[in-house]
Design goal:
Layout lengths: L16 H37 L7 H20 L3 H10 L3 E3 L1 E10 L2 E9 L9 E5 L14 E6 L3 E5 L6 E6 L6 H5 L3 H9 L17
Antiparallel strand pairs: 1-5, 2-3, 3-4, 4-7, 5-6, 6-7
């Protein structure tokens, strides 16, 4: 069963996918630059203080350790918690369609970013699968504005991309229980399956540490 958005007219025009990706890449670059700056300052300041004062206090090594930790955690978030390229694959394969409501069930913190459990409702259809959503640019907070509906590109039993009205926040989505959604994927016709393959949504999310391995 295809998940076509049969909803009232959306309150805004669909955002331009290219602009959505550009906005989120800029946000990601800003986040990474800030974390790298903090890491560099934590390492550099004790070194400068030690050089100026001649002090060899062990307390001066504590900021250096913290700076290295920030750097390592930043690299892990880039490796595991950033979904920009996956979202780009989806937006190339699917149009953005308006869905009138998103229900956030709960969220959990991980070192790679926050994982949100949500349902993207579709008017006239029941049993929308529970989805896991992660911010494509690495932000942790849940955005405002989802109560008025969201734009979605994808096929819910396979996954997709959710864009909050305004195009500033983008989330990568996969079914929370991949095996439970298998029947709906098996019912997909060849055209739906081909599109999901084009968007690279037909497999479990590999090495998705923040979504649990193999989620």
């Amino acid at each position: 069963m295809a998940y076509d958005a049969q909803t009232p007219a959306p309150p805004h025009e669909a955002p331009d996918p290219a602009e959505v990706l550009k906005s989120n890449y800029r946000a990601l670059a800003g986040l990474m630059a800030l974390r790298l700056l903090i890491s560099a300052l934590l390492v550099a300041i004790p070194v400068v203080v030690s050089h100026v004062t001649g002090s060899n206090s062990i307390f001066l090594t504590l900021p250096i350790v913290a700076g290295v930790f920030v750097l390592i955690s930043t690299l892990y978030r880039v490796m595991y918690g950033i979904r920009g390229s996956q979202c780009a694959n989806v937006l190339r394969a699917y149009p953005l369609e308006f869905h009138p409501r998103v229900v956030k069930k709960r969220e959990r913190w991980t070192r790679y970013g926050n994982v949100f459990e949500i349902r993207v409702t579709t008017r006239g259809q029941h049993g929308a699968p529970l989805m896991l959503a992660v911010n494509a640019a690495g932000r942790r907070r849940w955005p405002e504005g989802t109560e008025d509906g969201v734009w979605f590109a994808g096929d819910l039993p396979f996954g997709g991309v959710m864009v909050v009205p305004g195009g500033k926040e983008m989330f990568f989505l996969k079914p929370a229980d991949w095996d439970k959604s298998a029947g709906r994927r098996d019912d997909a016709d060849p055209e739906r399956l081909a599109r999901a393959e084009q968007a690279k949504l037909t497999h479990r999310t590999k090495r998705a540490v923040m979504m649990r391995p193999g989620a």
